[in-house]
Amino acid sequence: MPIEVTGLNYSYKKGTPFEKKVLYDVHLRINDGEVVGIIGPTQSGKTTLAQHFNALFIPQSGKVIVNGINTADKKADLVKLRHEVGYVFQNPDYQLFASCVGEDIAFGPRNQGLPSEDVAARVKEAMSQVGLDYDTFYSRDIFALSGGQKRRTAIAGVLACKPKTLVLDDITAGLDPRGRDEILAVVKRLHSEKQITIIYISNSMDEIAELAERVIVIDQGRIAFDDLKINVFNQPEKLRDIGLELPELMTLAIDLHQQGFNIDPALLKFDEILQSILDSLQEGQVRE
Amino acid sequence: MFILNPLIETFDLSYAYRTGSDRQVQALREVNMHVRQGEILAITGQNGSGKSTLARHFNGLLTPDEGEVLISGLSTSSRENIPSIRKTVGMVFQNPDNQLVSSIVEEDIAFGPENLGLPPDIIRKRVDHALLTLNLEHLRQESPNQLSEGQKQLVAIAGVLAMRPKCIVMDEPTAHLDPRSRREVIDNILRLNREEEITIILLTHYMNEVVHCDRMIVMDQGFIMMEGTPTEIFYQDGKILDYGLDFPVATRLARSLKLHGIDLDDNIIHTREIVERLCQLK
Amino acid sequence: MELTKNITLGVYLPGNTAVHRLDPRTKIIASTILIVILLLINSYQAYGYFFLFISAVIAAAGIPPGYALRGLKPMLPVLVLMWAFQLFLHSSPDADVIFSWWIFSATDAGLHLGNMITLRVLFLFTVTTILTLTTSIVSLTDGLESLLRPLKKIGLPTQELVMTMVIALRFVLILAEELDKIVKAQMARGVAFDRGNFIQKTRKIFPVFLPLFINAFRRAEDLIVAMESRSYTGGKGRTKMKTLHMGRVDIACILIILLFTGLMVLTIFT
Amino acid sequence: MNLSVRKIVISGILGAISILLGVTRLGFIPVPTPAGHATIMHIPVILGAILEGPVVGLITGAIFGLFSFLQPGAPFFADPLVSILPRLFIGPLAYLIYFLTKRINTIMAYALAGAFGAATNTVLVMTMATWRGYLPAEVSISIGVLHGIPELIVAAILTVVLVKGIQRVRPVDEQTSIKK
To answer: What is the ipTM of this complex?
Structure first.
């Protein structure tokens, strides 16, 4: 289900003295099966934009059409739409409230009014998708979970609604390296095995580089780039000006590139950079 | 072992959290460590490794079940030492929203000195100095709600700085921040150590922050697993991965290049070091 | 959807008039005296004087007259209803009926009472509005802390009480943002807050209230630790960076208020 | 009287929730009465009383009352005798009920404390509004019944659920509070 955004504008506190414009004339289209990274500095408007995709925000001007449904249409079934476009929030504590993991994951399907055996099946499936063992974790108290497990529970809670598109809003914030890697692995698997469209919001270029094929850069409410990852990351100076911190690997590649190494800074993957350095060193030795 | 100028020392420190119905979670097990005056010490370990519990012993927020913690020679176990310990060691926590008290930046920074019972003009001077040191002067009348997460964290640091501590413990101060604010906060922490000669204890699991520290401690399951300079620890062996941590990017690259037969030294932890070395090799 | 859109904490209207510059303590004392007067007066004459006085204050504070009453607008229907209740339902044996309609009959005593309470509410509202329009909520708490200080002698932990207010003010906006996210996270999982009957709607409160309160208590635990680590142990031995100063204007203001109080006492007892 | 840091912080944060419920109108539950809603703004006060004792209940109630006085939701709340005074009693009374009944059954004690806390709010506010002449007795009584009963039921249930929820995250270990 493609998401089409045309001429979208949005202002916070519209009609009050504190009005602040956060989105300016945004146009974009997200197709089925894509993995799109949305990146931008904090308060650039990326969350506001993404929350238009599942009608948590309704456009003040312009249009958002999700699978043919205009979210501003008064007759549109927004509840159904929100099940189709799942949204996982940054902090799992906003979402989790039930007494145990299984109950919390069952909340969404129950809201859909499914019979209990279907709910149970959905919970089981969702738990396996995020790598939480059903028997071990079903009745585990949510507050006894680690940060990574909590986030996986939150993702499972949304997956249990069977979304076709998943919006993941800065879900690795505050995790340690191991927890972060677990979450990234889950996201990759969801895309490759379930063909779920992934919209991954982050302010970490490392993570975007690892997951996304296409990258949308938001700068002060405007789309600064919307292109293939390699084309976007090929413009480090511009990204830096926007206020994004370049990944360490990338600055390293840029430095080496400036020193005459044959390295493309937009590669970003560790193994690719390693290979380029090895190749460059070999070339150099051959030349000598 | 005799340590010159120990600011903090722990001796066989053990601590357990009691979580209802007699269940105990052993958070620290016979921890022996020290902090030297003037150094930057990184304490790393994955979530739940006990580093935060350890840090809370440094200014008497927690006191040992067993063993002892000495701050400038004063034991945290005697209650009468606590006020003076808290003047010596300040703490900054992970979430800036949950540590700021006042709705005006400068008043929040004044909160600590006010608690120390200082005269108004002295408090004013300290607040001004803290604002100046962290480049927050233009925000002095703002409400913390108007600031970015990174700015809020700097306000929290300023609030501790205004208490003139000898040492500041930073409990994952960057975990909630975006990459750019993270660097800003770290740069400021390093500057405080350099210019104000404040001892820094930095709890983190970001290895690109650890590389700036003089010394590091790796914790896991309440034990201290490794201790040494970052170079020593990253080049000892691959043990650090077992504790859920990473190598810094430069180290990881250097190690891989070495496996491919490239001649590199065993002390590369900064990106600029590897760039320099590779340029020499070219 | 923006839950936090209409949150205005305090309605402070920054300005630089004499009223704005007054020491917050002066303003709190003056407002308290005016409120006590309003709770006691009961005649058109007294309200007349009060109107003149409060108009002068509004003019001196440079507040657009409409602005002072703006907050009253949403309450207007209830205000009219309250007036009507007294007009029609007040029963006293010697009251004269002014007019009757269907089963209702209005008495002169009811009309008087209705007018009195409406005037009282209107003026009470105006006094607090002037106070909050000309004084930021932070300086209000500063003033309150300083004013309550003598009560420490009788064992009241006044500084601590004011600290609870400081914390409440600091956290309202933080929790408001959090509430916004919680509500959205539930909507994203298919909760439709506007659908269903009373019981269904009530049930939808739980997934919002539980995370809200649980997270608030978590924040409280963090803040306790943070405050203790910053050497806070309560009001004892605490000093303040900002010291309040009463100037000549403040003394003049207090004098004016006292004169006005005298006038009011005279109207009440004659 | 001595207030621990813990009591200060929890009163403040619960006070913040009470204010928040008022300004977002989330503190009003739509009920099928002519006035259209029941209030639950006193829930934080009741929770404070049960979890931290009568003093926290009293302070939270004072913050609730003060705010409802400064930004009145109904005209008669402009009178501090109606908006502030009755709110001071919610916490201590809820605590008393909880204290007296907790030995019988804790869940029931939470529910009763919630119900009595809510009832205290309704009864005292309405009494003061009548005594101060803002509402005739007949009107106060009918509002009290129409609103009071749903409010009481909602408060009882919410109190049980919230107290049990909050207790899951509260540390048993309170070593961090250094008492003087």
So the answer is: 0.92
